[in-house]
Design brief:
mainly alpha
Length: about 80
């Protein structure tokens, strides 16, 4: 069992936001180079983005249907 506590949210949040922004820029740059009528460019983009499309994050805790954050959004009642 760990004796250290988790780092404060602020310590993790900023690097996470920078990572997300870098990934967005990377994906946009790859997609911008795709020529739909050029199979080689489509294949290259698929190869470059494959690690992202295959990646699955580990949940911090098991997801349960009772978790309100995971609940399906409900449509408002018509008035």
């Amino acid at each position: 069992m760990r004796s250290e506590s988790a780092p404060p949210t602020g310590v993790v949040k900023e690097p996470l936001l920078r990572l997300q922004e870098a990934l967005r820029k990377y994906v946009l740059q790859v997609i911008a180079q795709v020529e739909e009528d050029d199979p080689a460019s489509v294949q290259l983009a698929d190869e470059l983005l494959a690690p992202l499309s295959e990646w699955q994050s580990r949940a911090a805790k098991p997801a349960t249907p009772q978790d309100p954050a995971l609940a399906e959004p409900t449509a408002p009642d018509p008035a």
